[in-house]
Amino acid sequence: QSVLTQPPSVSGAPRQKVTISCSGSSSNIGKNYVSWYQQLPGTAPKLLIYDNNKRPSGIPDRFSGSKSGTSATLGITGLQTGDEADYFCATWDSSLSAGVFGGGTKLTVL
Amino acid sequence: QLQLQESGPGLVKPSQTLSLTCTVSGGSISGSSYYWGWIRQPPGKGLEWIAMIYYSGNTYYSPSLKSRVTISVDSSKKQFSLRLNSVTAADSAIYYCARHLHDANLGLTGRYYYYYMDVWGKGTTVTVSS
Questions:
Q1: Tell me, what DSSP letter sits at residue A86?
Q2: Largest alpha-carbon pair distance within chain B?
Q3: What's the pLDDT score for residue B108?
Q4: Which residues of A fall within a CB distance of 8 Å from B37?
Q5: ∠ CA B65-A85-A104 to the nearest 5 degrees?
Q6: Closest to B77 measured CA to CA, from B122, B33, B23
Q7: Is A90–B100 a contact, with Cβ atoms under 8 angstroms apart?
Q8: Bridge partners, B22 (sequence order)
Q9: Is A90 close to B110, i.e. CB distance below 8 A?
Q10: Is the pLDDT at A1 greater than 90, yes or no?
Q11: What are the pLDDT digits (tens) for A48-66?
Q12: pLDDT per residue as tens digits for the range B71-102
């Protein structure tokens, strides 16, 4: 059972937009910054969003992040088949004094 | 360009100790606000945070694994290591090492943290089996 809650799967058609939610509590998302990771099949996770809504160099602006209260959202616009991957949210949990992850969301581009 | 590389046995017997090392290249292991840590992923499952360590030795552990895990760092070799004892089949996973940005600010309601993992190794598969 993950500390952060994500939907197991989402899907969308090419060129459409999808959002992936990540729900936590006052000791993690409610207090600290959220990051998002993309894991393509058979590869290591890659940082996609950090500090709630910032993109590392090289990440296209089709990917965006936001946070409100104890929930965070990853948005992906202009869906491409290459976006099919697992997406994970993460943050610091101040009560656990540890990093925590969401269970992951599998994105299917129909 | 900073790179991380995991190394260690791919097969460990039940009840024994899993030992992995991550070697850092292309950059310093002693950068401010950067920790070095481990994450694992059982087959077909999600990511599980294990532990992280600062170059000076400050550590954080997952509460669920703390009793069995030790993380250590050798700055002179630019390496950090994970030991997980009393392993079972449930510890079979891909183990990733990563660089963790961990920093804090003091706000009106207390301390809040910046935290993310920006550089990852490719991962190493560990199977626990007799």
A1: E
A2: 54
A3: 84
A4: 99
A5: 35
A6: B23
A7: no
A8: B6, B80
A9: no
A10: no
A11: 999 999 999 999 999 999 9
A12: 999 999 999 999 999 999 999 999 999 999 99
The alpha carbons of chain B give a radius of gyration, in whole angstroms, of 15
Share of chain B above pLDDT 90, in %: 89
User: CA torsion B6→A44→B43→B39, rounded to 10°?
Assistant: 60
pLDDT tens track for B113-130: 999 999 999 999 999 999
Q: Cβ(B127)–Cβ(B11) under 8 Å?
A: yes
The one-letter amino acid at A64: S
d(CA B32, CA B55): 9
Torsion of the alpha carbons at A47, A18, A70 and A37, rounded to the nearest 10:
-10
Residue A87 contacts B, CB cutoff 8 Å? no
DSSP annotation of B88: -
**A56 in reach of chain B (CB within 8 A):** yes
Altogether, the residues listed in chain B come to a count of 130
Backbone angles phi, psi at A52, to 5 degrees: 75, -45
Q: What tokens were used for B13?
A: 């017997």
Q: What gap in Å lies between CA A44 and CA A10, rounded to an integer?
A: 21
At B121, give phi and psi (nearest 5°). Answer: -80, 175
Q: How would DSSP label each residue in A39-54?
A: E-TTS--EEEEBTTTB
Report residue A33 as tokens.
Answer: 């910054």
Residue matched to tokens 């937009």: A17
